[in-house]
Amino acid sequence: MKRQADPSHPAHTIEDIHAALAARRLDLEQLAARMRAVGPESDKRGEIVGPPWRPDDIPALNLNLVPEAYGGCSQTQSLVAQATLMAWLAEADASLALALPGPGLAMPPVVALASEAQQALFFQRFQSATPRWGAFAITEPDCGSDATAMRTSVRRTAHGWVLNGTKCFITNGARADCVITFATINRQMGRYGIRAFVVDRDIPGFSVTRVEKMSGLRASQLAMLSFNDCEVPDEAMLARGDEKPLDDAFSGAQRSWDYFRPLLSAVIVGTCRRIRAELAAWLAGGRPAASRLRVTEVDALLLDIDRQIASAWLLCHCTAWKTDQGIATSMESSMTKAYASRVAARVTRTALDVAGIDGVAARPALEQGYRDAKAFDIMEGTGDFQRLMIARAALRSPQRPWATA
Questions:
Q1: I need a surface site. Which of 164, 194, 251, 405 has the fewest CB within 10 A?
Q2: Distance between CA atoms of 353 and 14, rounded to whole angstroms?
Q3: Acyl-CoA dehydrogenase/oxidase C-terminal domain spans which residues (predicted)?
């Protein structure tokens, strides 16, 4: 999927993005300040507190990730720009950054699988002065990491399609106005039986069963969704109209993962930057973290944290750039997410060790960052699953992932 901004108007620095969104009446500085202010309470309550946005911010937030043709900001269309934005917002609060209004993960499969008429209808709902959320539902309770083994079924009727099944761990699922839902017409067909549907939250048979109690990223409200004889019209199935016999909707899901894993990695990088800043601020008060550590050892730890964060960001930026160029990045996106989540685990653990009990008490963001890092390893495929995907991709091709051709 290639959604690159106009090269004559690059927006790859946060200053460029600030200016582009300010023209749409969205003040990122004020938004980030409010996210920092309500972040601890949002984490405590597991919901968006405040909310952190102003009424004037909502139209621009709703249209984030929306293609330019349907009202999205022309200067933030590239994945590099989106990654830069998400990393910056995550420094304020990672959970709220993931919980901001907009189509979110629902965007890539719609762009990949839907006809122009379906895309226009789907993205039109985000042209609103009230917050709108989209969600992406493929994960199921009994399928582990094998999404092609899904049990959510769909059958044709005289009036459309009827879905039955359960989806779990759906980001923003409890607040989503519409959910891109993947279901199978025949489990024996594997991935080739999978189809994607737009399901509005007010359709009979659709319900939010529960919101998961998370250790981290609580405001993102991962939810379990149920579909009980949930009937949707014919046009709810995403289809361009030119599909071939072996085309399947699972490719749209893969594009979602390839697109969102660098974005999630950017959120992870932003979290690590926040943790590093909180730790440095605590140490600047002249309080040694642990009596066993000398000043030079603490400085070395901070430098090592800087190195890890920088390397994770460079990997994230490279993967995002390749995606913008239309280069397949399934392997790179897995590498980016696996490495970034591992960096987050190391950085947050080091910060807790260095800050000690007093530092954690004085800087609660250190403890929240540690919990968020645990959730990062699970989201968009566990770290172990990512490493398995990397190994399989490496065995299939001798080409190294950093090669551009």
A1: 405
A2: 32
A3: 253-394
Rounded to whole angstroms, the Cα distance separating 361 from 355 reads: 9
Residues ≥6 apart with Cβ < 8 Å to 302: 276, 279, 280, 283
Its pTM stands at: 0.90
Identify whether the C-beta of residue 230 lies closer than 8 Å to the C-beta of residue 198.
no
d(CA 331, CA 391): 9
Residues 6+ apart with CB under 8 A from 163: 152, 153, 154, 181, 183, 197, 199, 205, 227, 230, 231, 232
- Other CB atoms closer than 10 Å to residue 310's CB: what's the count? 12
Asked whether residue 401 is assigned to any structural domain, the reply reads: no
pLDDT tens string, the chain, 405 residues long: the values are 555 444 444 557 899 999 999 999 999 999 999 999 999 999 999 999 999 999 999 999 999 999 999 999 988 999 999 999 999 999 999 999 999 999 998 999 999 899 999 999 999 999 999 999 999 999 998 776 667 778 999 999 988 999 999 999 999 999 999 999 999 998 888 888 889 999 999 999 999 999 999 889 999 999 999 999 999 999 999 988 776 555 667 777 788 888 999 999 999 999 999 999 999 998 887 665 555 666 677 788 899 999 999 999 999 999 999 999 998 888 888 899 999 999 999 999 999 988 888 889 999 999 999 999 999 988 776 667 777 777 777 777 766 555 554
Residue 245 covered by a domain: no
Q: Residue 354 corresponds to which tokens in the numbers above?
A: 């260095």
For residue 115, count other CB atoms closer than 10 A to its CB.
Answer: 14
Of the candidates 313, 265, 364, 355, the one whose C-alpha atom is nearest the C-alpha of residue 36 is: 364
CATH number of 80's domain = 1.10.540
Task: State residue 268 phi and psi, 5-degree precision.
Answer: -60, -45
Report the number of distinct structural domains present in the chain. Answer: 3
Q: How many helices (H) and strands (E) does the chain have?
A: 12, 7
Question: Domain residues for 81?
Answer: 14-124
Residues 202, 65, single domain; the answer is no
Residue 363 inside a domain? The answer is yes
- Chain CA centroid to CA 246, Å: 29
My answer on whether 60 and 178 are in the same domain is no
